[in-house]
Design brief:
By secondary structure, this protein is of the alpha/beta class. It is built from 12 helices and 20 strands. 38% of the residues are buried.
């Protein structure tokens, strides 16, 4: 199930996107209170925007705009709105997104072709290990996508290894949709309960919320830990509520494939200009085909590297590498620039570390400080020194690390309104 446009030449994809861009500009200039004002204020004549290269003439939309003027982005009357979702609020106040029936159909299409990218077909059954409630778009998208693809879906929700295994053994899902670190808990539970997990019928996991690959697409420490005990195929996926679009790996695992019929992507520097080919920049998107709340040149806050060239799967679309980090979560620590995923990878290297949470805050001088709390079964000064030495070797700096109980870390990672575990708490 590869859409024709994704197999087309780069030139045809570009021409297709330029036509869709014109339609989007006309739509938001007519229907979006925010963009009507925004374009007028910036003295933008949309009729002169005819190519993807012309995008740089348009203003940038930020998360702050969405937070301040949330309702003004809505392009349809309330009677047309079918569903409301909110962002997780990782980098500030949560933002509400309204969806029409057409938007839900687009979301289903997006997830269906994204699942197909990972090899999911009509004969497969997916076990959903994330919530569908709490105004969470992802869980809804997975359910709608499975239905559109004709696959089965088992809606278990997050956590509870006992219930997950009960469902796996009873319904025989072939794919799991899960936070990858939870797979380690499933493996541990299966070992303790004598479950023959290697012959459970699960052939792959679609991994959400945490990175499983290095920038060269090799498996990172977390993924290697999983595959050492359970040799299932692991697929990386990247998405956000604002994009209403996913970037999933195919079987060749060379980055998440772009769906040009759904979204225009740019990778920009600090001056909002395209980075050179192969450089890291901030992913900036323009949604296509969104009815209720389309976005124009929206800066996602995610630092990524784009990869071009055809893929062996038959798609000619751009591919996104693993997210390097969130721009707002960049840390300047003792003269070194860090992103949280680099620290996650080091902590995942230690089998002794049962769980952890990283806290970032400003000290009295206004510079960044890092406190890492780890839970281990056997506390020792030797382990503490070993972890610090590992940080120095890999990142050239050693943050403050202290031991905590598993319960304390669980409380920090799962605050009352959270829909997913937090590995990082940014107090800045």
């Amino acid at each position: 199930m590869i859409p024709d446009i994704e197999k087309a030449s780069q030139d045809k994809i570009k021409t297709f996107q330029e036509e869709k861009l014109k339609e989007t500009l006309e739509y938001i200039a007519k229907n979006s209170p925010f963009y009507k004002r925004f374009l007028q204020t910036n003295d933008i004549d949309i009729s002169v925007i005819n190519s993807l290269e012309d995008l740089k003439e348009l203003p940038i939309t930020t998360k702050e705009h969405l937070q301040r003027f949330n309702d003004e982005f809505i392009c349809v009357p309330k009677s047309e709105i079918i569903d409301y979702v909110t962002t997780s609020g990782t980098l500030g106040d949560p933002v509400t997104f309204a969806l029409t029936d057409k938007d839900l159909e687009r979301l289903a299409y997006n997830e269906a072709i994204s699942f197909a990218c990972c090899g999911v077909g009509k004969d497969d059954t997916l076990q959903l290990m994330t919530t569908m409630d709490r105004r969470f778009m992802a869980g809804l998208a997975y359910f709608l996508g499975a239905r559109k693809l004709g696959s089965g879906i088992v809606r278990v929700g997050s956590g509870i290894p006992e219930l997950q295994w009960d469902s796996i053994l009873k319904f025989k899902p072939t794919y799991l949709i899960t936070v990858p670190s939870f797979l380690l808990k499933l493996i541990e539970y299966a070992k303790n309960q004598g479950i023959d997990f290697k012959n459970s019928g699960v052939k792959a996991a679609i991994c959400i919320g945490e990175p499983i690959r290095e920038q060269d697409f090799s498996l990172n420490t977390l993924a290697k830990k999983i595959k050492k005990d359970w040799d299932i195929e692991l697929f990386s996926t990247y998405a956000s509520t604002e994009m209403s679009t996913a970037f999933n790996e195919c079987e060749f695992h060379n980055g998440g494939h772009h769906h040009p019929e759904l979204i225009i992507t740019e990778v920009l520097d600090d001056n909002n200009l395209p980075v050179l080919n192969g450089e890291v920049g901030e992913l900036t998107i323009t949604t296509l085909g969104v009815e209720a709340m389309p976005l124009l040149r929206f800066k996602t806050g995610d630092m990524v590297q784009a990869h071009s060239g055809p893929c062996d799967c038959g798609r000619n679309t751009m591919r996104l590498g693993p997210v390097v980090g969130r721009k707002k979560q960049m840390i300047k620590y003792k003269g070194t620039t860090l992103y949280p995923p680099a620290m996650y990878n080091i902590l995942n290297d230690f089998s002794e570390v049962e769980s952890y949470v990283i806290e970032i805050f400003h000290n009295d001088l206004g510079t960044d400080e890092i406190l890492i709390k780890v839970a281990v079964e056997n506390i020792s000064e030797e382990l503490l020194l070993l972890i610090k030495d590992h940080f120095r070797a890999k990142l050239r700096v050693a943050p403050t690390i202290e031991f905590a109980t598993s319960e304390e870390i669980k409380t920090l990672r799962f605050p009352a309104m959270s829909r997913k575990p937090l590995n990082l708490i940014d107090h800045r």
